[in-house]
Design goal:
Chain B: It is found in: Cell envelope. The complex is a heterodimer of chains A (256) and B (503). Chain A has 256 residues and is an all-alpha fold. Chain A contains 9 helices and 1 strand. In chain B, strand 10 and strand 11 form a beta hairpin. The chains are: A mainly alpha (256), B alpha+beta (503). At the A-B interface, helix 2, helix 5 and strand 1 of A face helix 3, strand 8 and helix 22 of B. Strand 1 of chain A pairs parallel with strand 8 of chain B. Bound molecules: protoporphyrin IX containing FE and iron/sulfur cluster (2 copies).
């Protein structure tokens, strides 16, 4: 097995498997842990600039990548006209810069704001750093190897499809320049980190809000079909400490 | 008719002594954990004042509650559905910790560890968020008892529409007047917090109306915090989940009153069942401003009405709940005697905790003025009755707080309460009820019998009369859809998982 197979075939599959399996396990077994973990209450101003920029930038760019994977022909057709090609490439670059600035602000905020530092886990820094690397290598790729919208459909679309259809062709990325390979590998790293970090909030986007009724009323005593109980997830050390028995205080309630 | 039961609390503001025992009972029970230090599910405000969090009634800023759209339909003030999703990354209406206060404690070890020296060691304040020393800028009830202050009382939004001259007088030290306003979550019939939550994590229990956050479904989108016009959902900065007053449902389910109510020193709090018609919630929430209170009273049902009883049974309410609704102090004060009002009905969440507006500050000041007039004592009471509108704490102020600015709703309440007081005074001082007093009772829209009942439930209630809590039969609930043996060891208070960040 050469490096190429390891980094662009074995690792992607490991990352994807982790992302799917661990995410499902975490969302079912430890739902309390799944949260975007907003820190807006503690610091709002810098978050406004950082979070808005990073999220809109990244969501749009990821969306564009996804479109290129799903509709490669459309992308080629669109980019056939130079004006449209420049428009696309410049928009992409601008969004990436915007997102990069956002991540930078968020990173600086995490390091400089005392209140944010105390709620930062090592994983929070890892995620922001990986995103920063992703954006920087992406910008290098887009500007040094023009034009992505020409070769992405020829290289990455088949590469990703080959992985998804279980007929992997890692050789497609074998001869790419270092920075592009770095960008790709970093993406798989993000996928691997996804289920273990707050990135899991991405799959909890509450689109159901668009059509659910405003009010939610729940009956506790209405008969429901008997349901099998999901097995309790055993928790390590802390919970297994013996609980102190409830004390019987005696006396009657209501000595007013 | 779709009859449901609601556990409602009632606050008799005249009796509140502002001791904060309720807040401390609640804090010790529920919010004495990391990330919840700044949460006061129960707090007591000095009014006029800015409240907690500071200025929570300024809805232009905090965007809480509902408003009527162009076609008269209810709309969340905070956002439309699509707008809400687009603001997930950053929620502009969310208060920050500085709108509350940075929780603090003191480094008490310093008192013991300080090196020997010439000055007295002090325990310096440290932040409970960062652990670093801080300058304390604010705290819970920072404006406690500062009723007339220019700094706080002046910023009270309920002055709106009150004559500026009167407002200016209110800040003169000799004219200071204030009362206390204890607040918990109102467990609204049309809760804005529920409607604003994109994850659908907040829900209302149909059986007793308690509004709860499902901590497992909450994803920290924190829209509820902004949308609640009473600012009674709090965001736990440590666990990344929202939390709110749970009306002590574990206590209710075991027949005990909520901790705040049970510990209340002034015994101002009552707790009882209200039957309401769930089909009328929308009408109550979307009524024109001047009809809001009336529409809510219409949605609350008479538990003695045979049609209501039949419908309640059909809806699954057992006899004991119906009996509890009949004995409910909430029913008497809210529906029967019409003495209690919801806080800020204009927020249109149809709040289900009720307040009996304060009478004392109004009368005591007027009394002083009248003594100067050298009135004969037997005239004085009656003079008060006629001059309510000249009271120092303006009726408009109370109306802005409890009646969407509708003075016509406040006046009869104060008159009735005053009539009860005059009656009891005449009875105990003169030993008889003369025709004049009877006429006064009638003018206040009440009668001897009702006045006596109001008097008894106001001043002499026993614990069982204050808290009429029906049996929940909670044990039956789990059995219906889960195997209780499988749940053994899992139920009870506290977290099933330790509440650590991201775990
Ligand atoms: C479209 C769906 C998404 C939603 C609704 C969403 C929402 C949020 C929210 C509410 C926060 C908390 C912000 C705060 O502190 O108040 C957050 C943080 C974060 N999100 Fe997203 N997000 C989305 C997509 C993404 C994507 C696609 C990424 C990256 C690939 C991402 C990466 C992050 C990171 C790194 C943070 C932490 C920021 C920090 O350091 O404070 N999110 N997100
Ligand atoms: S008062 Fe309570 S139920 Fe009403 S909107 Fe606020 S948090 Fe929700
Ligand atoms: S315990 Fe009762 S009297 Fe004391 S502040 Fe609270 S509500 Fe008022």
């Amino acid at each position: 097995m050469n490096w190429n197979t390891l980094l662009f075939l074995v690792f992607p599959y490991v990352a994807l498997a982790l992302a799917v399996v661990v995410s499902i396990l975490r969302m079912r077994g430890r739902p309390f842990s799944v949260s975007a973990q907003s820190s807006q209450l503690l610091e709002s101003r810098k978050l406004y600039f950082g979070s808005t920029a990073m999220h809109w930038g990244l969501v749009l760019i990821l969306g564009a990548h996804l479109l290129a994977v799903l509709l490669p022909k459309g992308l080629l057709l669109w980019s056939a006209v130079p004006l449209r090609l420049y428009l696309l490439e410049i928009t992409g670059l601008a969004l990436a810069l915007w997102a990069g600035v956002g991540v930078w602000i968020l990173l600086a905020r995490r390091l400089s704001e005392a209140r944010i530092r105390v709620v930062s886990t090592p994983m929070d820094y890892v995620v922001l750093l990986l995103l920063l690397v992703s954006i920087i290598t992406g910008i290098i790729t887009a500007s040094a190897y023009r034009f992505g919208s020409y070769w992405f459909p020829a290289v990455f679309t088949p590469y990703l499809w080959s992985l998804f259809t279980l007929q992997p062709r890692p050789e497609l990325v074998a001869d790419l320049p270092f920075w592009i390979q770095f960008h790709v590998f970093n993406f798989w790293l993000l996928v691997a980190v996804f289920p273990f970090s707050r990135l899991i909030h991405i799959v909890t986007v509450p689109l159901g809000y668009l059509w659910r009724p405003w009010q939610i009323v729940i009956w506790l005593r209405r008969k429901r079909p008997l349901r099998a109980t999901p097995p309790a997830v055993p928790h390590p050390a802390p919970a297994s400490k013996p609980q102190p028995a409830l004390q019987d205080k005696g006396g009657s309630y209501g000595s007013d | 008719m779709n009859v449901r039961a609601h556990m409602s609390m009632l606050f008799h503001l005249d009796k509140c002594i502002g001791c904060h025992t309720c807040s401390v009972a609640c804090k010790n029970l529920w919010t004495d954990r990391k990330g919840t230090e700044y949460m006061w599910w129960n707090n007591v405000e000095t009014r006029p004042g800015a409240g907690y969090p500071t200025g929570w009634e300024e809805q232009e800023r905090f965007q809480g509650g509902w408003e009527l759209g162009k076609n008269g339909e209810l709309e969340l003030r905070l956002h439309s559905r699509a707008r809400g999703l687009s603001r997930l990354f950053f929620n502009p209406a969310l208060p920050t910790l500085d709108d509350y206060y940075e929780p603090y404690t003191f480094r008490y070890q310093d008192l013991f560890n300080a090196p020997e020296g010439n000055d007295q060691p002090t325990a310096i304040p440290i932040s409970m968020v960062t652990g670093e020393p801080i300058q304390i800028q604010a705290g819970p009830s920072w404006d406690d008892d500062l009723g007339g202050s220019n700094l706080y009382a002046k910023n009270d939004p309920n002055w709106e529409g009150v004559d500026p001259d009167i407002q200016a007088q209110m800040h003169e030290i000799e004219r200071v007047v204030f009362n206390y306003l204890p607040r918990i979550c109102n467990h609204c019939l049309n809760p804005a917090c529920v409607a604003a939550c994109p994850s659908g994590a907040i829900y209302k229990r149909a059986e007793d109306g308690v509004v709860l956050v499902n901590e497992n479904k909450c994803k920290a989108w924190r829209m509820c915090v902004a949308a609640c016009p009473y600012k009674k959902v709090y965001y736990n900065w440590s666990t990344g989940k929202s939390e709110k007053c749970i009306l002590c449902f574990p206590r209710l389910e075991t027949g005990q009153a909520p901790a705040c109510a049970h510990s209340c020193v002034g015994r101002i709090r009552y707790m009882g069942v209200l039957l309401y018609d769930a089909d009328k919630i929308y009408a109550a929430a979307s009524a024109p401003e001047e009809r809001l209170v009336e529409a809510q009273r219409e949605a609350i049902l008479d538990p003695f009405d045979p049609a209501v009883i039949a419908a309640a049974k059909e809806g699954g309410l057992d006899d004991e709940w119906i009996k509890a609704a009949q004995n409910s102090p909430a029913y008497k004060f809210v529906k029967l005697w019409k003495l209690a009002l919801p806080l800020h009905p204009e927020y249109r969440t149809v709040a289900m905790m009720f307040y009996i507006p304060p009478l004392s500050p109004i009368v005591s000041t007027l009394e002083r003025g009248l003594i100067k007039l050298d009135l004969p004592p037997e005239r004085m009471d009656f003079e008060l009755f006629e001059n309510l509108d000249k009271a120092r704490l303006p009726l408009e102020y109370l109306a802005n707080m409890f009646a969407a600015g509708n003075v016509a709703l406040i006046e009869p309440i104060l008159k009735k309460m005053l009539a009860v007081r005059i009656l009891k005074r005449r009875q105990s001082v003169y030993g008889e009820v003369d025709a004049q007093t009877l006429a006064l009772l009638e003018a206040a829209g009440t009668n001897l019998e009702e006045a006596e009942a109001i008097y008894r439930l106001t001043t002499l209630p026993t614990l069982e009369e204050r808290f009429v809590i029906p049996p929940y039969h909670r044990e039956a609930a789990a059995e219906l859809y889960n195997d209780p043996l499988a749940h053994k060891g899992e139920v009870g208070l506290g977290y099933i998982q330790p509440p650590r960040r991201g775990e």
